[in-house]
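Fold it.
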Amino acid sequence: MRREKSAGAVVFNPRLNKYLLLHYPTGHWDFPKGHVEPRESEVKAAKREVFEETGLEIDILFGFREIIKYHFRERDVLVEKKVIYFVGITEQEEVKLSYEHDGYLWLDYEDALNKITYDNSKKVLMKAHLFLKNLGYSS
């Protein structure tokens, strides 16, 4: 079994009071994320991946770090994927999608929760929303 490590962010715009979701060509809606490069910190990887996939600069709010794990097959090889999510804040609205995605939406919490495809990502959003609410960001 091959192991991969990625980092990403639940991106929140406090001015809009909305979360960013990306549409992947495979059909699912999720957060921006990508591989952690050798000798790169998880936080730097999350910020880099968000920028590469969306053109957005984010500030990481420390105190939130959620890990999800899942398995998938790639050319008959089982891959265990570990993704570390942070919460990223941005005031920017204009998203410049990379070739890796074919759509995006800024959604309020309830709509984002309903749009996210996978249950493990829904749980990350629930925890991120509570984290932001406790910091006074989200209503």
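The mean pLDDT is 95.
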